[in-house]
């Protein structure tokens, strides 16, 4: 459908303030309803007990189901390479959107080649670079201002182009495109456009000087392609959030924020004020913390440290989104850390208890020790041969299984 871009810019936060292989097909859709009684005379089955730590998130979903909610229900998924692939997250998104309403792909990186997202095609021309150079670092890099996704990108002025094309045919209504950017100096500038619509030039002004994270909102009538072209200097792009208009029909959005190699310490190394402002802007109903696989690779595992970091991260998030629920996931099985993975799992479970988060035991769901090798030996395989990652089939199976957990206790 043709687009009619409408642009507006606003400041978000002051910068001065302190992929795994894809193979095989997806698993069958999960059944989240309650079985019907065998006979009309049989008593109606009781609903399974829900997760008290997810009560506010589930209440928001009930509002959607009743048609009484006027805003999207948003999920932020912070994690490592398992999440960056958007197969695990994509399956969970798919289950929730099919039941409660499809509200768009959510957060998408722009100009980052080591990233994929369901329902979106990403392309670049010429060279694009990322900052920080080691996105998974657990120590502060520079000023620590990297937007919501922990990574900013920069293209070559004049020749670097980055495109984000929504390919999900299920999205045909009006879409908003919330582009996050930062001009580091008064010499920085870039152009942004939707499809064949007009180009909007972004540069520093007297009222919007360089240094801050800012946002530009564009609107299209249906699916479209966003194009970003740096024209001068080194402007930084910190992603785009693509959503439907909740006034038309609110639904579920899941933001994939996984980073290859990330740990609990990764988001803790980002500037708290700027990251927190981006979290507050999203107004999440649920934050998923999917770490632990890389912690299990530590030569000397320190369960107390992992527990403390999980609690600190939840505390930080809730300073900016006090009403959000949280869900901590255990690490997947890993072939070379058979003794250490259960220790990390237990540390995450304890951290979830202390922080008031729901906990889902990914390790046990897979089958515990040795399960990743067993999954890799299957045909078609559910795990990759590296002993660390899963195949698309394995990830999507975990996603549909996780959906059962977050929907537990809700009526069909």
UniProtKB/TrEMBL annotation:
Residues 1-31 are annotated as: Disordered. Signal peptide: none annotated. SUPFAM superfamilies: SGNH hydrolase (SSF52266). Transmembrane segments: none annotated. InterPro entries: Ester_Hydrolysis_Enzymes, SGNH_hydro, SGNH_hydro_sf. Residues 250-396 form the SGNH hydrolase-type esterase domain. This is GDSL-type esterase/lipase family protein. It comes from Polyangium mundeleinium.
